[in-house]
């Protein structure tokens, strides 16, 4: 069976390094958005997006 080619999507970052970053950053990002501060930041971002969408129309 042919091995799937690793893509760096133009970043130049090797796949193994990207995977190492993901293993470190993803849990921290998840923890932030599960917190009250993260949820408030997300709601603020969504309100800004809605305001920008209504300005565009």
Structural summary, described in words:
With 57 residues, the protein is an all-alpha fold. 72% of the residues lie in helices and 0% in strands. The chain is built from two helices and no strands. The chain has helices at residues 15-34, 36-56. Helix 1 crosses helix 2 (36-56). The radius of gyration is 18 Å and the shape is flat. The N and C termini lie far apart (51 Å).
Architecture blueprint of SSEs:
Blueprint: H1 15-34, H2 36-56
Helix pairs in contact: 1-2
Seen as an oligomer or otherwise, the chain set is single chain
Number of strands: 0
Tell me, what's the shape? Answer: flat
Q: Strand percentage, roughly?
A: under 5%
The whole-angstrom Rg is 18 Å
Poorly predicted regions: none
Distance, first to last CA: 51 Å
> What kind of sheet is the major sheet?
none
Q: Give, in order, the helices and strands.
A: HH
Number of discrete helical segments: 2
Question: Structural class of the secondary elements?
Answer: mainly alpha
Mean pLDDT: 89
Percent helix among the residues? over 70%
């Amino acid at each position: 069976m042919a091995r799937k080619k690793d893509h760096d999507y133009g970043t130049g970052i090797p796949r193994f390094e990207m995977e190492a970053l993901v293993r470190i950053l993803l849990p921290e990002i998840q923890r932030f958005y599960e917190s009250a501060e993260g949820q408030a930041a997300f709601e603020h971002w969504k309100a800004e997006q809605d305001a920008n969408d209504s300005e565009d129309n």
